[in-house]
Write a structure and sequence with these properties.
The structure is a homodimer. Chain A is α/β, with parallel strands linked by helices. Chain A folds into 2 domains: 5-53, Orthogonal Bundle (Helicase, Ruva Protein, domain 3), CATH 1.10.8; 78-170, 3-Layer(aba) Sandwich (Dna Topoisomerase Vi A Subunit, Chain: A, domain 2). In chain A, 41% of the residues lie in helices and 14% in strands. The first copy, chain A, has 7 helices and 7 strands; from the N terminus they run αααβββαβαβαβαβ. In chain A, α1 (5-15) packs across α2 (22-34). The longest helix of chain A is centred in the N-terminal third of the chain and has 17 residues, at 37-53. Chains A and B meet through α1, α2, α3, β2 and α4 of A and α1, α2, α3, β2 and α4 of B. Chains A, B: This is Recombination protein RecR. Chains A, B: InterPro entries: DNA_Rcmb_RecR, Hlx-hairpin-Hlx_DNA-bd_motif, Rcmb_RecR, Rcmb_RecR_Znf, TOPRIM_dom, TOPRIM_RecR.
Chain lengths: 199, 199
């Protein structure tokens, strides 16, 4: 019995979060216990609210509280002729941070991985193809991660989309191979977008 | 506008926690959004509960949900003749993990720091002295941090307590077990030499 019971429970819950080990969980718990009661309540509320009010946009499948999301809504001022395809919602955040892309997004929610049994049906691939049916989209930028799974996913999508008469491009390999898109700096990401090539 | 509003709010709240930067806050928020609704609610509840049900033990000033805390309660089986004085509640956790100490604790909630204007009245010093009045306590082990503030606090407490006829000891300074002699600083090595023992 190292902690008072409410602290032990909080430490347990915090340790379920990714990258939070016992030491960090304890440090956070001891901090939370000393927070103002308002701040603790705000933190707790924001967790419940984020979990309950966040859904996937029915168009691009990014996280959103409004459907369609702010980027997909007709009045958003985005270029509706270009769709950037990414693996995860965090990748949309990373791309938006560059301010270099003005089009729409499509979040696959993963990448093809035969090793882990992730096939196209586990990703939002059908939904992407459906978006190309309107004829509004002239280009699809494949911005999956520059690793084996991401490259394979890009190749697969390119083969699928090209026959539809839509231009398919891949982010340039200014991206370090083996890296993680999320952790790239804005300049590198922007350069990669600039140098994209027909595949 | 990088995130959906509820996610942005959660990221903001998470970034108020110590050691949580924007990247980590985003990673945690995206994880929370994907958690089962029950797990999210449990996490939120444990935060509010920990904040509301945790108080300071009126005897040792460690965090507790019962007063006096489990260690201070008469039936705890602890040696009531020895008090280990530490700076923070997390230090009690660290000491308890050793299973080497069977006595009671006293949490100062800080260390003397003239530089930052922390004097004895800001710490639980009076409360420690009051505990020594019963005559039950035979030894006070000073386990404040081995840095300038911790040493000064130990010296201050020793001068205050010795006249009361209570034995005052300080945790030994020396080589950390599992460490590398080569990388120890001179002061630690000199102390280790000073405190050498017959084997």
């Amino acid at each position: 019995m190292e902690f008072a019971r409410p602290i032990a429970r909080l430490v347990d819950e915090l340790m379920r979060l990714p990258g939070i080990g016992p030491k960090t969980a304890q440090r956070l718990a001891f901090h939370i216990v000393r927070m103002g009661p308002d701040q603790a309540r705000r933190l707790a509320e924001s967790i419940v609210e984020a979990r309950e009010r966040t859904r996937l946009c029915s168009v691009c499948f990014n996280f959103t509280d409004a459907d369609p999301c702010r980027l997909c809504q007709p009045g958003s001022g985005r270029d509706r002729s270009v769709i950037c395809v990414v693996e995860e919602p965090k990748d949309v955040t990373a791309m938006e941070r560059t301010r270099a892309f003005k089009g729409l997004y499509h979040v696959l929610h993963g990448a093809l991985s035969p090793m882990e049994g992730v096939g196209p049906e586990a990703l939002k691939v059908q939904e992407l193809i459906a978006r190309l049916g309107s004829g509004e989209v002239r280009e699809v930028v494949l911005a999956t991660d520059p690793n084996v799974e991401g490259e394979a996913t890009a190749m697969y999508l390119a083969r699928l989309i090209k026959p539809l008469g839509v231009r398919v491009t891949r982010m340039a390999h200014g991206m370090p191979v083996g890296g993680d898109l999320e952790y790239l700096d804005e300049v590198t990401l922007a350069r990669a977008l600039e140098g994209r090539r027909e595949i």
